[in-house]
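LAB NOTEBOOK - FOLDING QUEUE
OPERATOR: T.R.
BATCH SIZE: 2
PURPOSE: Compare the predicted structure-token outputs for two unrelated chains run back to back under identical settings.
PRIORITY: normal
REVIEWER: second-year student, initials M.K.

ITEM 1
FIELD SEQUENCE / FIELD STRUCTURE:
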Amino acid sequence: MATVRGCNLPDELLYDVQNQIWFQELGDGNVKVGMTAVATAMAGRLVAFTPKGVGKEVKAGKSCATIESGKWVGPAKVASGGTVVEVNEALVATPSLANDDPYGRGWLLILKPEAWDAVKPTLIPGTAVAAPYEAKMIADGFAGCAA
């Protein structure tokens, strides 16, 4: 697992560094989507998670959910378009799960992606994500995740 400035970035995931989103292929053609530890640390404690509903279409590069913390409100943008298959209802009920466990219980939703074979090569594998994330943290002036 890569650790950049105290932020964990698991090797087995694929990353959209610009939008601070991770993807996990589930083996059934669907992908699980979540926010990185970097994103949750930058946002602070999440207080609301409002996802698109099951069955809704999401366009590539557009929001699949609105995330809100005490200091930030914004979209969770996905690199792949597709249809929402499942929403993490536990995260709707307790948004701070994304802060406490961004790669486990804090996932956002499951997407049936469109054109995944074209999108996947644009994502960065976890084994190669450390340098791009270091560069993003420098660009964003982000010191790192709290210990």
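ITEM 2
FIELD SEQUENCE / FIELD STRUCTURE:
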Amino acid sequence: MIDIISQPWHWAISGVMIVVVMALLLFLGQRFGVSSSFRHVCSAVGFGKNASYFDYNWKDHLWLMYFIFGSIVGGAIASTLLNDQEPIQLSLATIEHLKELNISHPGEAQYPIDLFSIESLFTIKGIILFIGGGFLIGFGTRYAGGCTSGHAISGLSNLQLPSLVAVIGFFIGGLLTTHVLLPIILNL
């Protein structure tokens, strides 16, 4: 069984599962969005006493809390029990491109150690990527009225124009970050 679970699956399986989940959510009158779970957690721990934004019945969205909890537990299980310790397989072109961006030894670990280590956190590059990036993600999520999964999966399946605009903005921002900002930051 572990062999079946740990092998790469065809991309269409994910697509079918997304369709099934979205059909169920539409049928049940619910919306999908991971970023809104933070609001539910804040409401559940009692922040509604101090801020009206968190003052609502969070139990109506308990299914989303289970989803987030399951995602965390599933990620932990996958990273420990199903983790293949072999280096990831990158194309030669990708390896060369990452070296041009000052990432040493690309593909030798599951993630670039130059970027994801305690030592790198306390560098200018680390502060920009983690603190600045985290702030921009949080601000952008609230400003856009949801995260990428909420808009791209749930909003587009509901044919919402604001979600289409948000998704186009996500792609433009991602392209600008990848091709303009990231090379500048990684070469600091």
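REVIEWER COMMENT (ITEM 2): Residues 151 and 159 are 10 Å apart (CA to CA).
FOLLOW-UP: none requested
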